[in-house]
Amino acid sequence: MAFDIDMIKKVYSQMSERVDKAREVVGKPLTLSEKILYSHLWENKPDQKFTRGKDYVDFAPDRIACQDATAQMALLQFMQAGKENVAVPTTVHCDHLIQAKQGAVKDLKRANETSNEVFDFLESVSSKYGIGFWKPGAGIIHQVVLENYAFPGGMMIGTDSHTVNAGGLGMLAIGVGGADAVDVMAGMPWELKFPKLIGVKLTGAPQGWTAAKDVILKVAEILTVKGGTGCIVEYFGEGAKNLSCTGKGTICNMGAEIGATTSTFGYDDSMERFLRATDRNEIADEANKIREHLTGDQEVYDHPEDYFDQVIEIDLSTLRPHLNGPFTPDLATPVGELGEKAKKNDWPIKVDWGLIGSCTNSSYEDLTRAASIAQQAVDKKLIPKSDFGINPGSEQIRFTAERDGLLKVFEDLGATIFTNACGPCIGQWDRSDRKGDEKNTIVHSFNRNFSKRADGNPNTHAFVGSPEMVAAIAIAGRLDFDPMNDTLINEDGEEVKLDAPQGIELPELGFDVEDNGFLAPKEDGSTISVKVDPNSNRIQLLDPFDPWKGDNLMGAKLLIKAHGKCTTDHISMAGPWLKYRGHLDNISDNCLIGAVNAFNMKTNFVKSQLDGKYDAVPKTQRAYKAKGIPTVVVGDHNYGEGSSREHAAMEPRHLGVKVVLVKSFARIHETNLKKQGMLGITFDNESDYDLIQEDDTFNFVDLENFADGKPLTIEIVHADGSKDSIKANHTYNATQIGWFREGSALNMIKKQNKA
């Protein structure tokens, strides 16, 4: 069944004319990314050429997807917008609030009991405002989107950084904060700085143990966690055609780990096969009619250096399998070299867990490739040395995999089949085999491996690989195992070697499912009442943030100077805190508790300028707020890397932080700060970061003249009375300055609706 087929037909009916006009305006052949961008302009037909990395442009996305953790705040904001229905097709997916512990049945039952208030809220709000609702257990948002909503040439936004997964089906799918989604839900344009373009030319075909996952693990090494910031990564070449649609999705998914705006592939036969296998023949037929517009112009791919800002070339035939980590997804090591590297860095060699799944690698093909390794272990009498956990990507995949005997293969090895949900990938893992901060190693097919990410233990060394490599290393139980060259001893004392994995792109008997978990909204939701208990500790209605009075900000105190990597996980942790994602005041008690204080190298331990004592960051900040004292957060490079969670912007805003001053921002977090009425600025001279002292006071002496393209002057007053004057840059345009003046973007929407 093709959802929103009329919308898709409309997009396709307009695409030829808009692409032709864009090619005329730009004056040269177009990349796929440019075709989709120019055909989704808010003002419809292209009439001007935009400068990459400079011009802010208004777009009209085709659809929106929200996961349950971020949907709560997004929908709480939308409820204030004064609209009767969402303006574009929107869905909510319940995949984040299910903790992996005992197995799918028990874990899902427990989640429905402990989070029923949140699920009921989301279901009722969805039904009221015309939003499709996917029940708990229906699947991981990005896999469900790929199977049901993604379509070549479309543009979508989602309140999760891995929305980019849909690029595997030829979309421009972009992760945003909830406030961005609210704009589009309310019928407003969505603003984005016109991205730069990175082209990745793929040649050859994967051999043996090499998987699609290894492409993005290699790209992450090349570009690092910030090398894709402000860019779309477009993959092309004959090698791209040798990858499955879900393999392409895996590559696009982890593009979030290089900071990319999104990633995409041109429409090809693998995408058509996937559309038809997922009961979307009509979309495939329509896409085939405009096939030439659903990929880049041939001239672009023949001479990519003339059309992309950067070009990378990877030969899939010679690409080696990799494991990336620990603690960062861009630390890449070819399998076979990891043992020596681990010993040198004192990383634990013994592997305790192998985890397969997540939105990155939970497709049918992923399970078959991993199961082919698991079946060998059974056949060759190998006893796994590590525990196994499996998260299927959707109920459709789980049902089909069970029908085809794939899950039984894992179960025969003692694996735990978790719910069709995110689970350990986002810290929703009750890991019974570890206590405290014991040093240990796990391998997984997820996308992120930041400190504390999976199990809350800062000493869990997590390594990212393909599902089949995770299976092999978990069976061996050693990080230094190289399945391409090493042997294992089975229970009979025999030396055996694992053969290369074998995968099945799409199920030979087709996909099947009894209940996919989808609930359509009521046609008329006007009679539905969304009730929120004022005493609830899970859901809290929002109060608008105060507008800016238009004057200079004087006497602001330093809350924390964050040292090194400060991701959204550090600013607003997930795991057990997910339960408070709909209650801004409660979740604000995790504000910046993971950030490392540069003055003592400790987390959640900062000095208060009120009494000189050290205490937790949220407690210290609440004391400043109680006295009406504004504060500043100072950070390093790529501040706000990682998830799209806008809580990382809303929490400091709620607690009274006024300014975030850093060396550089991750894209989504910078936008989230702007949307919530925060001042997010960067050092003009990065070395000025070193000037900041623990007892500093900040005076923003020319903020009253805040304007597009005009740097700000900050007077820093040190405890000894000495002063430094520094410059700070910003990327606010006139509209975004309007958000700042009104107190938030939502305040501006409400004001416009009343006008």
UniProtKB/TrEMBL annotation:
Keyword Transit peptide in annotation: yes
Top enzyme category: lyase
Documented EC number(s): 4.2.1.3
Cross-referenced SUPFAM superfamilies: Aconitase iron-sulfur domain, LeuD/IlvD-like
Cofactor: [4Fe-4S] cluster
A single MF term (Gene Ontology): 4 iron, 4 sulfur cluster binding
Metabolic or biological pathway: Carbohydrate metabolism; tricarboxylic acid cycle; isocitrate from oxaloacetate: step 2/2
Catalytic activity: citrate = D-threo-isocitrate
Keywords: Iron, Iron-sulfur, Lyase, Metal-binding, Transit peptide, Tricarboxylic acid cycle
GO BP: any one term: tricarboxylic acid cycle
Cellular component per GO, a single term: cytosol
Gene3D superfamilies noted in UniProt: Aconitase, Domain 2, Aconitase, domain 3, Aconitase, domain 4
Pfam families: Aconitase, Aconitase_C
Domain Aconitase/3-isopropylmalate dehydratase large subunit alpha/beta/alpha: 34-477
Residues annotated as domain Aconitase A/isopropylmalate dehydratase small subunit swivel: 557-686
NCBIfam families referenced in this protein's UniProt entry, alphabetically: aconitase_mito, PRK07229.1
Stated family: Belongs to the aconitase/IPM isomerase family.
Name the UniProt record assigns to this protein: Aconitate hydratase A
Natural source organism: Psychroflexus sediminis
Upper lineage: Bacteria, Pseudomonadati, Bacteroidota, Flavobacteriia, Flavobacteriales
